[in-house]
Amino acid sequence: MPTFAPPPPDATGLEVAGYTLRSTIGYGGFSTVKEAVSSSGSTAAVKIVRHAAFDNLPTHERNKQRTRLSHEERIWATMSHENILPLFQVHHASEATYLFTLYCPAGSLFDILKRDGRPALEQTDAGCMFRQVIKGLQYMHDTMGLVHGDVKLENVLVDESGVCRLSDFGLTRPIGGTPCSSDEERERKDEVLERPRGPPKAIGDRSRGRRSGTTALPVHLSLMRRGQSRHRNSAPIPASEMPPSHPDHSFLPGSLPYAAPELLLPRTDVMNGRGTGYLPNPAQDMWALGVLLYTLLTGTYPFKDSFEPRLQMKILRGMYDVPSDIGPQAESVLKGCLEADVRKRWSISMVDDAAWGIGYG
Predict the structure, then answer these.
(1) Is 64 among the annotated ligand-binding positions?
(2) Lower CB count within 10 Å: N or C terminus of the chain?
(3) Which GO terms of the cellular component aspect does the record hold (predicted)?
């Protein structure tokens, strides 16, 4: 008699933990992201990590990926805040791990900037979204005692109500955690120096002019009016999970443009006190938060160069052009976050105190 192989763990129509898997909306190196519909009809997103994807890796790499998955699951499950992407449920099966989370139809802030067509968001929208990111990060730093470790546009998702939610906790660590081993340090630096694997892709019209004859709407409402075709290009899971395509050299997806200068210092300089190195430090998130704000307001990174070593030098020097039309509050926040001296860099509470005026000149 013929034998029938079981369906793959990410097969459309498969029922898992009370959900039915629907269309694929994203891919990662070891995962697939799909829509999932519950028995009550509600829609979620599910990240499906196939265990077989690790089988062909060297033993060290295979163990590292399994540990990372377990770590992310454990950290993610401890958090509950309006501006943190929630983890609804985890289902462990023999062939895959399923992580069910909120479905975010607007995608990430990176997706929004690409699709919106302008070089930047309207300043009122940027300020509103930035303040929500602050609240999520403040919860992580002050309440949970955690460093996110990978703050960037791709890792801020926007739900159907326009609420911004921090996501992707694979690099999240406790503040002041134990020093990294040599292997862990090398891995962290590899993450910081992450580069897109494809050629450049433009965001859209780079003109600084505002569109005339239109009424400013909250970003998520503008997106909803444009329809739901966004699912072809973005997903309710961080864009870092998606296969990179063709970003503009001034707008590369990945972690290097957000890396704090101390993360780029050689280990000897770190040991001599010139930086905090790879110890989990909230200051690393604060630098990345400044880069995120700059990009929301201008549509470009403060530090950019197509030649990676030169980009690293620009970050280490901390030299960037301050936008002239963003208002004094935004300028103060940028200077506080993009302070090369870790001791002088603003904390999340300092940013929260000053961010109320961003977007209002």
Answers:
(1) no
(2) N
(3) cytoplasm
